[in-house]
Amino acid sequence: MKNRTLNSALALPVILFSSHSVAAIEPASIDAGPIRIVPMASVQTGYDDNILSTSDNEQDDIITVLTPSVQLIAEDGVNAYRVAYRLSQGIYNDSSDDNYLDHDLSADAHLEFSHRSVLDLKAAYSRGHETRGTGLSATGGIANAIDSPLEYDTKTVGFNYTFGAEDATGRIELFADHLDREYQNFRSITEARDATETTAGAIFYYQVAPKTSLLFEARNKNIDYDVDGGNSLDSNTWKYFIGATWQSTAKTSGTVKIGRTEKDFDSSAREDFSGTSWEASVRWQPRTYSTVDLSTGRVEKETSGNGNFIDNSFVNINWNHAWTDIVSTDMGIGFSSDDYEGAADERKDETTSLNLGLNYDFRRWLTFGVAYQYNDTDSNIANTDYKKNVYLLTVNASL
Questions:
Q1: H or E element that contains 187
Q2: Which of 216, 228, 245, 248 has the fewest CB atoms within 10 Å, i.e. the most exposed one?
Q3: Chain centroid to CA 157: how far?
Q4: CB-hemisphere CA count at 13 Å for 68?
Q5: Are 201 and 159 in contact (CB under 8 A)?
Q6: What's the CA gap between 370 and 355, in Å, rounded?
């Protein structure tokens, strides 16, 4: 079992607009004694015909994002450690009020006490932003009061512990994460959205074939908002799943779970929720150079001020195909439905998204990508529909 956590994340992703078109760069490192230093840089420029995601008075712009990053990696046998930093500066050609500067600092450790006892640790600090027209700034009349991106800090710590060999009949996985989010500007609007989220759970795997296991999972998520009013959104959510996970069986691998969700609010003024829940991620690889990924799920997202929560269901399909050793394409389509539970206006949004990308690995250390993205959101509430077209050019470089 070799460095599963850190090697898989060696190439720190540098992505604008959630683009799926990322070429396969293979960064080299600088040896500094026991530490390897891996610097990378990305430049991405794109045209967005609706930067504020509005239904009318659409504003277009050219956006450039500069993203340098560096990773420090150390290995001690099967144990591995990483510290990573990434800076992302977004520059709008005409709308300078929407410029942003994000920072991400993280640390990971992968510790193997034996072949059947493995611990992964993580900690991260992020100074991020919400683009105008998304998140809290997309809520009703709030949008008119916000004239620049919303900035927030998040602090995260977590662990994942597995006991049991990968080929053992029984194996258990324990995990927990704690996140603290605090907005930094427009405090009269954002203060009530500061919150902490604590997630903990356990999964038991029972092997029924050499590469196939049944799974049984229980997961709890507690959300505590810093401003506790009489109609608080504080809640506690339990999820219970049964399912299966498999690897490389008939050219497929994946995990499928189905179960039940119970969401209880601290405030008696809000209606509790229970219902069916599912999570699935399946990969089909008919050829070594062609991969199809399918993901679907039903999740409860926090509302930005309308209703109790957002009942979200989604399905995404992405196909990556390598036409030659240096040229590949990405094609993806997604469907998402948001029901605003408890909202007086019974709001429901349905979104269709499409992405097309072409990647060119010019050198091991230099790649180019072009992409097109389309988003169409349809809502039963006036002035919340919008369409967006984005065209992207990306250059990734390393040593």
A1: helix 187-190
A2: 248
A3: 16
A4: 2
A5: no
A6: 11
Distance separating alpha carbons of residues 236 and 209, to the nearest angstrom: 36
Those residues with Cβ within 8 angstroms of residue 160's Cβ, 6 or more apart along the chain or in another chain: 119, 120, 173, 174, 175
Write the CA distances from 92 to 45, 98, 223, 266, integer angstroms. Answer: 10, 7, 35, 42
Q: Tell whether the model's pLDDT for residue 123 goes beyond 50.
A: yes
Q: Summarize the confidence of residues 20-35 as an average pLDDT.
A: 78
Tokens of 124: 């991260």
CA 135 to chain CA mean position, Å: 15
Query: Domains of the chain: which residue ranges?
Result: 4-398
SS3 of 8, please?
A: coil
H/E stretch holding 95 reads none
Beta strands 195-209 and 170-183: pairing type? antiparallel
Contact in structure between 166 and 145 (CB atoms under 8 Å):
no
Say which range, 11-20, 35-44, 87-96, has the weakest mean pLDDT.
Answer: 11-20
E strands, the chain, in order: 30-32, 35-48, 61-76, 79-92, 100-114, 117-130, 150-163, 170-183, 195-209, 212-225, 235-249, 252-265, 273-287, 290-301, 309-322, 327-341, 348-363, 366-379, 386-398
Give the number of other CB atoms < 10 A from CB of residue 338. 19
**Over the Cα atoms of the chain, what is R_g?**
22
CB–CB of 100/132 below 8 Å? no
CATH classification code of 4-398: 2.40.160
Least confident window among 11-20, 27-36, 75-84, 369-378: 11-20
Rounded alpha-carbon distances, angstroms, from residue 274 to 108, 193, 231, 238, 350:
35, 24, 20, 9, 22
Nearest alpha carbon to residue 123 among 83, 161, 88, 162 = 83
SS (H, E, C) 336-384: EEEEEECCCCCCEEEEEEEEEEEEEEEECCEEEEEEEEEEEEEECCCCC
Question: At 6, which helix (H) or strand (E)?
Answer: helix 4-7
Share of the chain above pLDDT 90, in %: 81
Rounded distance between C-alpha atoms, residue 309 and residue 66, angstroms = 35
From residue 367, alpha-carbon distances to 166, 362, 382, 386 in Å are: 36, 5, 43, 33
